[in-house]
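The instructor's notes for this session suggest beginning with a concrete chain rather than abstract definitions. Hand out the sequence below and ask the class to guess, before any prediction is shown, which regions might be ordered.
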Amino acid sequence: MINDKNFDRQALEVFRFQAKNNDLYKKYLNLLHIDISSVKEIEQIPFLPIQFFKTHKILSSNNEVQEVFLSSGTTGMSQSKHYITDIQLYENSYLKGFQHFYGNIEDYIILALLPNYLERKGSSLVYMVDDLIQKSKSTKSGFYLNNLESLSNKLRDLDKKNKKILLIGVSFALLDLIEFKKFNLKNTIVMETGGMKGKRKELVKEELHQLLCKGFGVEKIHSEYGMTELLSQGYSKGNGAFKTPPWMKILIRDTEDALTILSQNRTGGINVIDLANINSCSFIATQDLGKIHSDGTFEILGRFDKSDIRGCNLMVV
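After discussion, reveal the predicted structure:
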């Protein structure tokens, strides 16, 4: 059982395992001249730039690949590929993560509005939400593609019946829904998964949440922080303040020196430790910008400009 007290020890054990068994990560550490035995704290662990998931097969296991998750991307862009050798690890991670923050999945009716994800193959988000829909054991749970009228009618009907509802959707689709109809929801959690995906003008999170709060008639918008390259998710129950489950941790790196970890309340690149990624890489330097607050929550402030991405130039292989 991973908790705050033993997280660092577990993370260091995973680091040593992956430094030995992950060929790409091993090569990356060698190019950085890292002495594995000298790494005694998680702040000393080098994080693999997330871009390598677009160019390399990142594995720490010799087991057969069971699933390949693909990132979303516009036509012509290379996609990240996350090779999964133990799909049960992913299922355990997102189910326990949901239970950690929201309780028993069977208490909810899940309505999913993820049109662009449903229209392509290999989405880890669709895999997770589809399984959560099944585990909710409610015949009312389900996906919606473009039928906003059917969804809005069901959402209003269920909310009036005091059902506990989770409406999870990509940002642009939730905006489409509130432009189609306005709501005054009392028993529904509205959760956005981020991203306009080229469908709409990008909005800052605060502006997006203000629009969604007004359109759905709710006080707060929840958010999910996840990505193709991770098997775990962080959640925010409002105000953009995210928390992670016990087996996941966020560190903030200096934008000018990727090996330097910053203190609380300073803006930098988001590094993620995801111990569920035991069979790929648990130490990932993302392209997101953010900061950690003194209460342990973190917020997402934006993305790196492509010219600011550092680390990948170490390896042209």
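Then share the key points. DSSP finds eight helices and 14 strands in the chain. Confidence is low (pLDDT under 50) at residues 307-317.
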